[in-house]
Amino acid sequence: MSFQSGSLTVPLVEITWPSFDLLKFPPASEPQTLRPPVSDFSLAKPFNIDPNLYNDALHALVPISVATVYAVIANYVNNVNKRRENKPWAISRSSIFYIFVLLHNISLAAFSAWTFIGMLNAIANSWPGLSGERGLARALDSLCKIHGPRGYGSAATFNPKATSWGFTDTTMKLEESLPDTTDVGRLWNEGLAFYGWLFYISKFYEVIDTAIVLAKGKNTAFFQTYHHAGAMMCMWAATAKGSVADWLKKAALRAAGEEGLAENVRNSEGQTFGIDAAHAEEAENLFEEVRYKMQYQRISCLDTSGEAFAILLNCFYLAPLT
Fold this sequence. Notes:
It contains 11 helices and 5 strands; from the N terminus they run E-E-H-H-H-H-E-E-H-H-H-H-H-H-E-H. The protein is mainly alpha-helical. The strands form 2 sheets. The protein has a 3-stranded antiparallel sheet, with helices on one face. Helix 7 packs antiparallel against helix 11. The two termini are about 25 Å apart.
């Protein structure tokens, strides 16, 4: 899916095939996953994730190794249970086991509710609405482009050919080589980086479900093993390869070059106003702005082979389960 931007017409939204350049295996290692923003303590985000732990857990060998070991052990214990004629193990008859299972289920339910509410809040903080001529294009822009500051056309995207980050609006410049972790208004910083990683990690814990079934002497179905192992891989891909995802003032600051100009040059529609429009430096920036706005620009939802790989992996994973 892609959309075209331009100030003289209503942006067009098209459903198109992705570029074949994105369909490669293994996918490119760039860009590196961006770390989540540091935030103050709150119920929504009661802690910050160590950047090293965050990146180390997203190494491809982690889900591959855990999923392989899990599948081997599950298959082995299945065979043991068959030889034991599916008799429950002694521990499964204890009160401690019953309490553990109860707490396990309550914990998973509470965690799921917490992450669900957290992501709803992240989407709400990123959602621009559907009203106006640009409504649909703005909505797709906010959902497809998860990095950078709030605002239609202001997303930070990765260019695989240049192997560098930039903005869809070419008049905007990154203060550093990476998107700012303090930007607000797009999904990654609003919560996807935090909740997405925790949801990925939870897939390792959920193999406890299989352990509970096996402890009762039962055999686990192939699709249960497939489900848990596949979920690890899919959530890894979605989190590690999702980066292909603030302050409105910062967005304007990057575009105009300095804070005073940014606040007096453009309104929310990108139009110039204020007495500073006569300033020579401002005028040069505005010329570039107008030139950019007058051009059509095709913006694809997918920017990197990693994003395409994550989508295809999830499709292949879900196909046998539907």
